Amino acid sequence: MNFSTLFLSSLALCFGFVTASPALLRPRSDLRGFDVSEPPSKYFWTCALNAGYGKTVIRMYQQACGSGGKVDKNFVATYNAAVAAGFTNIDAYVFPCTGTQPTGVACKPVQTQINEILDVLLANNIIVQNVWFDVEPTSGECNAWNLGRAANFALAEEWVAAMKATGLQWGVYANGNQWADMFPSRSSDIASDLPLWAVQEDYVTEASTVTTFMGGWTEAYAKQYKLDTKTPECGGSLDLDSFIG
């Protein structure tokens, strides 16, 4: 057994990570949730749990175009704050470095970014239910998926293969209306065997109402239905989501 295999086996044994079908990744009941990229206040976490939010997704990795990708410096503290407040259903999302950058700094190799993700989980004894691969184009300060449709597709396939090799439970976060701008067509399939967290900002809470499919998906595990907002009960700076069982 090589070091990489031993490392991944240890991670799986310690935290209970296993590969699973999309159906096995679903929570047992409908859940109100939210995702955060900046750390909320200590008050927010307790308030949100008491208000009935059952799931949170925390940014674990960011494109950080000045360094080619890095672990979010706030991830561990934000995770610990959520756990301290009583949250037990916690996911993380990964917004990787995937483009050519105006800084001139090259993105780290896919496996290097993956290793940094694994390292922060293992070093801090962090347990997350699912890890979400954030696939969305950006431009300006940092670029994402700007390599051309064919090259983007090849890079996405490389990412998905590396993700699956970790033994973690992964899904894909994406907006169906952006898919054809990144990949050869709207039907280009990078990972339809993984759960989909769909972006469809229509302010309707039910994930079963997603209609903007792409990439071979025909149903969504989760729906981001309101972006750049706050909870009516507790404030915060976040996106609102629904997760289905």
Query: What is the topology, as strand order, of the major beta sheet?
Result: 1-2-4-5-6-7-8-9
Proportion of strand residues: 15-25%
Radius of gyration: 17 Å
Average pLDDT confidence is: 90
- Find the count of extended strands (DSSP E, 2+ residues): 9
Helix/sheet category: alpha/beta
> What fraction, in percent, of the residue positions are helical?
25-40%
Q: Number of helical segments?
A: 6
Shape verdict: globular
Distance between the termini: 37 Å
What is the N-to-C order of secondary-structure elements (H for helix, E for strand)? Answer: HEHEEHEHEHEHEEE
Main sheet summary: 8 strands, mixed, barrel
Characterization of this structure:
- The protein has about 240 residues and is of the alpha/beta class.
- It is about 30% helix and about 25% strand.
- It is built from 6 helices and 9 strands.
- It has an 8-stranded mixed beta barrel with strand order 1-2-4-5-6-7-8-9.
- Strand 8 and strand 9 form a beta hairpin.
- The longest helix is centred in the middle third of the chain and has 17 residues.
- The N and C termini lie far apart (about 35 Å).
